[in-house]
Amino acid sequence: MNDILDRLAEVIEARRDADPERSYVARLHARGLDTILKKVGEEAAETIIAAKGDDPAQVVYETADLWFHTLVMLSACGLGPGQVLAELERRFGLSGIEEKARRGSD
User: Fold this and answer.
1) Distance of CA 24 to the CA centre of its chain
2) Cα–Cα dist 49/34, whole Å
């Protein structure tokens, strides 16, 4: 399953410096991190709204948009899905309460 995340991250990296007139990813990168973060926020809100509705297909659609834009954000930060998946792997089997206690967070 994470193979698609890796493949998508590779495409995002390949398009990062493409012509912004021809590539949506290049356009986002050219506009900068603030634009990318705004888009992640918009997609998160749309995902929340979809989840409150009665259409599972819309939830999947909006979540895919959110994940895509999150991958663009990771790219802009010099990261990829591997780091996030490694963190999830590290947390696997810990309760949320235990994981927060290890971080010293409330």
Assistant:
1) 15
2) 23
CA distance 67 to 94: 24
Alpha carbon distances (Å) from 86 to 7, 28, 69: 17, 26, 19
* Encoded amino acid at 74, one letter: L
Amino acid at 92: F
The answer to whether 13 and 75 are in contact (CB under 8 A) is yes
Cα 46 to Cα 67: distance, rounded to the nearest angstrom: 12
Residue 96 Cα to chain centre, angstroms: 21
| Crossing angle of helices 81-91 and 56-76, rounded to 10° | 110
Kindly tell me the number of DSSP H helices and DSSP E strands found in the chain: 6, 0
The two tokens of residue 27 are 């356009």
**pTM of full prediction above 0.85:** yes
| 55-105 confidence digits (pLDDT tens) | 999 999 999 999 999 999 999 999 999 999 999 998 888 776 766 777 765
